[in-house]
Specification:
- This protein has three domains: 245 residues, Endonuclease, Chain A (2-Layer Sandwich); 160 residues, no CATH class; 323 residues, Endonuclease, Chain A.
- It is 32% helix and 15% strand.
- The chain is built from 24 helices and 23 strands.
- The strands form four sheets. The chain has a 17-stranded mixed β-sheet that branches. Strands 7-17 form a two-stranded parallel sheet. It has a two-stranded antiparallel ribbon with strand order 14-15.
- It starts with a helix and ends in a 10-residue tail after the last helix.
- GO terms for molecular function: phospholipase D activity.
- It comes from Dacryopinax primogenitus (strain DJM 731).
- It catalyses: a 1,2-diacyl-sn-glycero-3-phosphocholine + H2O = a 1,2-diacyl-sn-glycero-3-phosphate + choline + H(+).
- Keywords: Hydrolase, Lipid degradation, Lipid metabolism, Repeat.
């Protein structure tokens, strides 16, 4: 095709696309004028579903659509990793470890908005508190913050995943209506529809976690703005404060343990179906980025494309949902890839425009809080998208990036991920080849006689409720994980052994686990109830009424509270994930004033303020606390205290890889097919390479490292090894705001050269490797002895599982352990890292073999 013919074809395609958008706008006007006929709507859905099944390629079969696809493919072919986005230089990038730091940074980021906010989330909880404790920061609840910004004239655009309601509980409907009811400047889209649509999506989800503010700054990573994600470096598992309810950190549904019970009726956000008195919360470890720089424009492009595509499919009839234009134009940068974008002109002509200041005569933007938004990092955005999620042919530039970065690694790879499901061969249901890349790189190093290490940190168990021996989802994901690591014939370990090398010399796997004590002496609480005439559950209902504030919708008039059942002395029916509780509805006080009086009456009945004697949490002792576990006091019997010690895995939700302390990839994508193939879940990630380099060592030899990658890796290692100070939230809310809690471009405090930092500086040194492996081994031994946790190498089959798992409440101390024994042993725990038990259920071949693994089973796509 000649250049003239190509140009004519492109203009012809632009005309077709523009006509489609104009038709959408006309439909919006008709929708405003005419009430929708429900019968015709149902008929339309039926026709659309038939159409989609008849022609699954319906968005890519017209000549102009094929031309659009050709242009996109040409653009991607010119970029590293075949990404839609080009490399961008001079970005200022910051990492934020765990929700405490990121959500504070997010609160500042959102509060800085002057024109617009874009949000992509798998789940968004409007009632999430971004600063804690909530009693000291009521104005920093997410919905209240967004309402303030909308009232100031900021336009807010949100896209959330529309869940399969029969199997998932996050209620995107509640998210949409709770936010849109706040102000007309807030628009929320839910996607995809699952029944009666041309796409008929059954399995896949929108999984990105993205925020953009004013096209100036962005946030990308693993943290959804939803319940269950906020956490500190301490990773506390208890949050009960009988005489100081204002100290609560995890209000209502935010106190959660997905291994015990998934979220229930989240629109009733003040209720809780997990018992504060007996059940530990599941701690949440995650990592997110904030950044400023020209790479923000590529995140904006991703959002605008998604928004406009969903608008066309679902919301073109409603004027609330604008068409959006890309902010950068040919005048800003004539060589920008966006100039060739097949829809740029139509979006520009018909869409709402927001300013950008990264390209063109106004670049760069002004300083932010006295700091230049221009930085030292090279960034590139990658994504997993396809026709169902984005209206484009499949792009899997995230998988391409992971594989290439692994292939180009010289010394060391560190991985944290929520899943680890991959393949080393091109057969079986799992298709992504990240595991193959790891094997090839390790064998290459082994043949060359070079020291090369891969360290992988993943969850002990998937975050699904139920016992391992009973739940197919748990068994399928565990089986897929072990097939990737060390079983099934083509695992990483087996392939390395086939090449003649010991895999343990090159790649090892780890988990995170912690402990805590629930500050609820049974006799102390009973005494308070008797003296006050107020039950603990009534006090909880009063506290719940305070969370709702002045607005108190009818559906929150009753509060559901998980109440422990009366002790029958028979625990034979209990397993590792069964609560011995019943949900009880308690009527909430009518007013906040009445609620405060009830709480005051209950709390003042205590013979002394419990919090002055008994710590709210003891999780801080796994870090560098000034006190020791043996010094902790208690107001109750020894048996009561023993019954209040609990353990739980620290759930790893981060999705990152650090290579040679130089390169980092981080985002929303898991190590599994759902995230990596491109035609499954939609994902976004960024590759970061800092040009700010300094001298360090790798295996004792001089090695230049990048500041961003190195400081992130060292801080993660220090947290996992317990080499950081505890992170506490003062009840008055006067917590010192550190640099780690501020968004980019405010620089991080320099911790290089501190004694703890020096201990983890060289990841290949024998001293560090001994510190890490020895800590993981000791921690694992303690948790096995005190709590008999699974997975465990002592459990090689289901029979051993039945006899090993103690018949106690979930996460509680094994019956034969004494209080003195548990305090002595738990005092030896440092940080949260524990060994991965590679021999767990190794004798159960059905876990990793069978028809579901030898041929493609459509249902397995849910888990892989």
């Amino acid at each position: 095709m000649s250049d003239t013919e190509t140009d004519h074809s492109h203009k012809h395609g632009h005309s077709h696309f523009r006509q489609r958008l104009e038709h959408d706008l006309g439909q919006a006007r008709l929708r405003t004028a005419n009430k929708v006929n429900i019968v015709s709507k149902i008929a339309h859905h039926a026709i659309q579903e038939i159409k989609g099944k008849w022609n699954p390629n319906h968005r890519h079969d017209e000549d102009w659509e094929k031309e659009d696809d050709r242009i996109r493919d040409e653009i991607r072919a010119q970029h590293r990793f075949r990404s839609f986005a080009v490399d961008r230089w001079h970005n200022s990038v910051k990492w934020h470890i765990d929700g405490h730091d990121y959500f504070y940074a997010l609160s500042e980021l959102l509060d800085s908005a002057r024109s617009h906010i874009f949000i992509l989330d798998w789940w968004l909880s409007p009632e999430l508190y971004l600063r804690r404790p909530p009693a000291a920061h009521p104005e920093w609840r997410l919905d209240r913050l967004l309402a303030r910004k909308a009232a100031e004239g900021v336009r807010i655009y949100v896209v959330v995943y529309k869940e399969v309601t029969q199997t998932m509980s996050m209620s995107s409907s509640h998210t949409k209506h709770a936010l849109e009811d706040l102000h007309e400047n807030i628009a929320v889209m839910r996607h995809p529809d699952h029944i009666g649509t041309v796409d008929d999506i059954e399995f896949w989800s929108h999984h990105e976690k993205v925020v953009v503010v004013d096209n100036l700054r962005a946030a990308v990573g693993g943290l959804d703005a939803c319940f269950g994600r906020w956490d500190t470096h301490n990773h506390p598992m208890a949050d009960i404060h009988p005489t100081a309810s204002a100290h609560t950190l995890f209000p209502g549904q935010d106190y959660n343990n997905a291994r015990i019970l998934d979220f229930q009726s989240v629109q009733q956000y003040t209720s809780n179906f997990v018992s504060l008195l007996t059940t530990p919360r599941m701690p949440w470890h995650d990592v997110h980025l904030t950044f400023s720089g020209p790479a923000v424009l590529d995140v904006v492009q991703h959002f605008v494309e998604r928004w406009n595509e969903i608008r066309h499919r679902k919301y073109h009839h409603d004027h609330r949902y604008d068409i959006l234009a890309f902010p950068h134009t040919p005048e800003d940068g004539p060589n920008e890839p966006i100039v060739r974008h097949p829809h740029r002109e139509a979006f520009h002509e018909l869409g709402r425009k927001f300013k950008q200041r990264w390209l063109g005569p106004e670049a760069p933007p002004d300083n932010v809080d006295g700091h230049s938004p221009v930085g030292t990092c090279r960034m590139q955005v990658g994504r997993s998208v396809s026709d169902w999620s984005h209206g484009v042919l499949t792009e899997h530039s995230i998988q391409n990036a992971y594989i290439q970065l692994i292939q180009e690694a010289n010394h060391f790879i560190y991985i944290e991920n929520q899943f680890f499901v991959s393949n080393t061969v091109e057969e079986g249901p799992v298709q992504n080849q990240i595991a193959r890349a790891l094997v090839d790189r390790i064998v290459l190093a082994a043949k060359a006689g070079r020291k090369f290490k891969v360290m992988v940190v993943i969850p002990e168990l998937p975050g699904f409720s139920g016992n391992i021996n009973e739940q197919s989802a748990l068994k399928n994901i565990l089986g897929a994980t072990y097939r990737t690591i060390n079983r099934g014939g083509h695992s990483i370990y087996e392939e390395i052994r086939k090449a003649g090398y010991d895999p343990m010399e090159y790649i090892r796997f780890y988990h995170l686990r912690g402990y805590d004590r629930i500050a609820a002496p049974k006799s102390f609480l009973q005494e308070m109830e008797q003296k006050s005439g107020v039950t603990f559950r009534e006090a909880q209902a009063a506290l719940a009424r305070i969370w709702t504030g002045d607005s108190h919708p009818p559906e929150l008039s009753n509060v559901t509270i998980a109440v422990p059942k009366a002790d029958t002395g028979d625990t034979a029916n209990l397993g590792t994930t069964q609560q011995n509780v019943e949900p009880v509805q308690v009527k909430a006080p009518k007013t906040v004033e009445e609620a405060r009086e009830i709480l005051k009456k209950f709390e003042s009945a205590a013979r002394m303020p419990l919090e002055t004697v008994v710590s709210d949490s003891v999780a801080q002792h796994a870090l560098q606390d000034r006190t020791e576990l043996k010094d902790e006091k208690w107001l109750g019997t020894e048996e009561e205290e023993k019954s209040c010690y609990v353990t739980e895995e620290v759930y790893i939700h981060s999705k990152l890889m650090i290579v040679d302390d130089v390169r980092v990839i981080i985002g929303s994508a898991n190590f599994n097919d759902r995230s990596q193939r491109g035609d499954g879940d939609s994902e976004i990630a960024v590759i970061v390479e800092d040009t700010d380099m300094f001298k360090s060592t790798m295996d004792g030899h001089p090695h230049m490292v990048a500041r961003f990658a190195t400081t992130l890796r060292r801080k993660l290692f220090r947290e996992h090894l317990g080499l950081i100070r505890p992170q506490n939230c003062p009840p008055e809310g006067d917590e010192p705001v550190t640099s780690f809690m501020r968004p980019a471009p405010i620089p991080l405090e320099n911790e290089l050269g501190q004694p703890e930092d020096d201990l983890v500086a060289d990841p290949l040194s024998d001293a560090f490797q001994h510190l890490w492996t020895n800590t993981a081994k000791i921690n694992r031994g303690v948790f096995t002895e005190i709590f008999r946790t699974v997975p465990s190498d002592m459990v090689r089959n289901w029979e051993a599982y039945k006899t090993f798992v103690p018949q106690t409440l979930p996460g509680h101390v094994a019956p034969d352990v004494t209080l003195e024994q548990l305090k002595t042993r738990l005092s030896q725990v440092r940080g949260h890292v524990v060994d991965c038990p590679l021999d767990f259920l190794i004798e159960e071949s059905e876990l990793i073999s069978g028809s579901q693994w030898s041929s493609y089973n459509p249902l397995m796509a849910l888990y892989l």
